[in-house]
Amino acid sequence: MIVDFHTHALPPRIKSDRRRYVERDLAFAAIYAGEKVSIATADDLLAAMDREGVDISVIVNYGWSTHELCVETNDYILESVARYPKRLVGFCAVAAYHDDDSLAEIERCVKGGVKGVGELRPDVPSPDNMTREKLAPFARLLREHNLILMTHSSEPVGHPYPGKGAATPESLYTFITRLNGLPVVCAHWGGGLPFYTLMPEVRQALENVYFDTAISPFLYRTDVYRCVKDLVGADRILFGTDYPVLPPSRLLKEINAIELPAEERELILAGNARRLLGI
């Protein structure tokens, strides 16, 4: 079995009218302003899954700047999961962590069957809104509903790319430690955060944190798989592509080439995701 823990699917109207949404949202524009950057619908995703042998995909949303765009795209994710309940799992998005509208939106999406919240941008809200006290209702709600949180992650060094952002290991660590042990998935290998688990206090703080492989070929040599496995364990790595940015085959080729033990390969490709999602 293969579970892709990091995919994106947007409504057909956004795919056909990209410019309108680019003009409405700066965070979306940072990634999708260029016409060559692919946008996929849920049907596009299902076709790719069938073509490439992926059994289940997690559709994660984006760090939209407004509540209205979160609701609009959450609606589409809920509809897609309802249409394909055996193939798709949904995560919802909120524009803030502490306001009543965002908390109510999470409650609404839970009723629609979402398994998590994300892919959120810890670097976007003001630091004043990221205190432990202001995050407490958000963290409490996620814990109450057994939800997983996925964060965008960025490297503090290296080449720029659309959407890189500033969710670097330092800000991620601060954010995660204020969530009191919630299960967190840091996308894109956590921007290098696993390295810091060599520090005992960081290792302890990240005991319930996972790292996905999304767009790994654009960021790292294949050595990253063995390095992160040695640092945090194969049971904390999740196969994710960031489809439609990359097809599953691109990452599967890498994973097959490094000749992981069969048990570890199964954990990365499906076992860890199934355990986290309860499927």
Give an overview in words.
This protein has 279 residues and is of the alpha/beta class. The protein has a single domain (3-277), classed as TIM Barrel (Alpha-Beta Barrel), CATH 3.20.20.140. The protein contains 13 helices and 8 strands. It has helices at residues 12-16, 18-24, 26-32, 42-52, 67-83, 100-111, 132-144, 169-177, 200-205, 216-219, 223-232, 248-257, 262-277, and strands spanning 3-7, 56-59, 88-92, 116-120, 148-151, 184-186, 209-212, 237-238. The protein has an 8-stranded parallel beta sheet, sandwiched between helices. Strand 5, helix 8 and strand 6 form a beta-alpha-beta unit. The chain starts with a strand and ends with a helix. The model has no long low-confidence stretch (mean pLDDT 94).
A few lines on this structure:
Helices cover 46% and strands 11% of the residues.
User: How many strands, which pairing sense, and closed or not: the largest β-sheet?
Assistant: 8 strands, parallel
Structural class: alpha/beta
Enumerate the strands of the largest sheet in spatial order, edge to edge or round the barrel. Answer: 1-2-3-4-5-6-7-8
Name the helix and strand elements from N-terminus to C-terminus, one letter apiece: EHHHHEHEHEHEHEHEHHEHH
